[in-house]
């Protein structure tokens, strides 16, 4: 099984990959800008968080499933089907008549989005040799970074001057062009495989992941709701393990996940996801609420992470050649705790430049860790397992992001409860709930001090996660043989 493409065809396919990546990456930030207008139109504020959660639930729970399907049927049909589902969901989101309908259509969007990221990254591994892959992965990372920056701006312009529906409908031409690119230029040679689809395993996995994400994200729910989600998660997980052990072609190969390389890389991805979303959530709060800077300055500080990430990815092949994969991964990953440690120096009188520099260093560490893990995983398995292996790493990072959002919020709330006297806590929550939000915090020095202490506690937690993430990279067998495969790889990898 293999993918064949001329240099010109590869150029067109990279364009299709970048368009697909942009379409999914921009979705979260652009929708966030439009949500106040949507809620004002439909009402139903109690469904607000589910507009985001439904997309995340579907995307995360289907990632591993699509990776397996891509290995069985080939990248092309599965990717095109995923994009088509995403576009149908986008079209219906613009036609939604209520918040309930919007949540349902966002779920459909997420089901399609689950195919796009893992399969496009797998395609990069199919199309390019190891020494060429850094440049393309750097382009993909740059698209993700640009999406985070331009998403809110584009969303604001569309809502103010056109209509909120175009927040979703702008995906339609982009997605259609991407589909055309894959349809016309992606040529696969797929050996026929009589592989039964593990539909029951896929369903149980989706239920288990959905219950887990509900359990960790709905911490303010009633005891009954939390207990029900926990019970569903436990029972569906046990049933999933039982099903996968007996299935002839399991949707998740436990033998694959037990390999030292994949286990170490996926653990690193999980921890990196926790760190990434924690930094994304907390750093803007500090820059605006404690340093008293504008949202633009906060955005620029966080944007430094999205500059460091693609820079590290683009430079990775050179670092591999100069220092070896093992040394490049281990020592550049130290930028994670160094950057997170600099955030502990932030205080009421600190400069936002320090916040930006710390963010940039974390981005460097994130870039080298994520790219190296993907490369090692893809080079350790044959074509017929590359989709599943790549999807497992993306799934681990996505799950880490969900866990990180919950953990960061929990630590911040613990800090507020610990450091704030009752009257200060009441004033702090009152200020944060006003339209001015963080901009009005500077008028209350006592509240600023408490907010700084609570954020400092959260940054300490992120520093610990960064240390563990950097340590996890030392357990990755990162030596590549002359043939470009990790040293632990063997001819019988599929067995």
UniProtKB/TrEMBL annotation:
Keywords: Cell membrane, Membrane, Transmembrane, Transmembrane helix, Transport. Residues 13-481 form the Major facilitator superfamily (MFS) profile domain. It is a multi-pass membrane protein. InterPro entries: MFS, MFS_dom, MFS_trans_sf, Sugar_transporter_CS. This is MFS-type drug efflux transporter P55. One of its GO terms (molecular function) is transmembrane transporter activity. PANTHER family: MAJOR FACILITATOR SUPERFAMILY, VACUOLAR BASIC AMINO ACID TRANSPORTER 4. One of its GO terms (cellular component) is plasma membrane. It is found in: Cell membrane. Its main location: membrane. CDD domains: MFS_Azr1_MDR_like. Coiled coil: none annotated. It comes from the Bacteria. It comes from Azorhizobium oxalatiphilum. Signal peptide: none annotated. The chain crosses the membrane at residues 12-35, 47-66, 78-97, 103-124, 136-158, 164-185, 197-216, 222-241, 261-283, 295-316, 328-347, 353-377, 398-421, 454-476. PROSITE patterns: MFS, SUGAR_TRANSPORT_2.
């Amino acid at each position: 099984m293999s993918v064949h493409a001329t240099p010109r065809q590869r150029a067109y396919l990279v364009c299709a990959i970048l368009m697909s990546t942009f379409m999914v990456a921009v979705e979260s930030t652009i929708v966030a800008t439009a949500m106040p207008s949507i809620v004002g139109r439909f009402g139903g504020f109690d469904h607000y968080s589910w507009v985001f959660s439904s997309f995340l639930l579907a995307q995360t729970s289907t990632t591993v499933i699509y990776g397996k399907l891509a290995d069985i049927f080939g990248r092309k049909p599965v990717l095109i089907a995923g994009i088509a589902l995403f576009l149908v969901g986008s079209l219906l989101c613009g036609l939604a008549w209520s918040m309930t309908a919007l949540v349902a259509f966002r779920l459909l969007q997420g089901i399609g989005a689950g195919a796009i990221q893992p399969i496009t990254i797998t395609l990069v591994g199919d199309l390019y040799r190891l020494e060429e892959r850094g440049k393309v992965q750097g382009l993909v990372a740059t698209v993700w970074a640009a999406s985070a920056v331009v998403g809110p701006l584009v969303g604001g312009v569309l809502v103010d001057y056109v209509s909120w529906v175009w927040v979703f409908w702008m995906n339609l031409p982009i997605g259609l062009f991407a589909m055309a690119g894959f349809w016309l230029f992606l040529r696969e040679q797929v050996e026929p495989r009589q592989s039964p689809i593990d539909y029951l395993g896929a369903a149980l996995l989706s239920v288990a992941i959905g219950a887990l994400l509900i359990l960790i994200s709905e911490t303010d729910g009633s005891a009954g709701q939390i207990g029900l989600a926990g019970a569903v998660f436990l029972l569906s997980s046990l049933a999933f393990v039982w099903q996968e052990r007996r299935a002839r072609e399991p949707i998740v190969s436990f033998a694959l996940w037990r390999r030292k390389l994949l286990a170490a890389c996926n653990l690193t991805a999980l921890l990196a996801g926790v760190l990434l979303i924690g930094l994304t959530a907390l750093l803007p709060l500090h820059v605006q609420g404690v340093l008293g800077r504008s949202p633009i300055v906060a955005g620029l500080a966080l944007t430094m992470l999205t500059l460091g990430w693609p820079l590290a990815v683009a430079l990775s092949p050179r670092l591999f050649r100069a220092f070896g994969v093992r040394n490049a991964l281990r020592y550049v990953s130290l930028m994670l705790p160094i950057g997170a440690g600099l955030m502990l120096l932030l205080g009421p009188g600190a400069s936002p430049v320090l916040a930006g520099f710390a963010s940039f260093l974390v981005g460097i560490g994130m870039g080298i860790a994520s790219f190296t893990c993907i490369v090692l995983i893809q080079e350790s398995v044959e074509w017929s397992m590359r989709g599943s292996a790549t999807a497992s790493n993306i799934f681990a990072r996505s799950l880490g992001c969900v866990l990180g959002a919950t953990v960061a919020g929990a630590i911040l709330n613990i800090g507020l409860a610990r450091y704030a006297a009752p009257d200060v806590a009441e004033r702090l929550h009152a200020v944060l709930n006003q339209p001015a939000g963080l901009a009005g915090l500077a008028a209350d020095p006592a509240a600023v001090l408490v907010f700084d202490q609570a954020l400092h506690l959260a940054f300490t937690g992120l520093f610990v996660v960064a240390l563990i993430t950097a340590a996890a990279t030392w357990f990755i067998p990162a030596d590549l043989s002359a043939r470009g495969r990790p040293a632990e790889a063997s001819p019988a990898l599929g067995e």
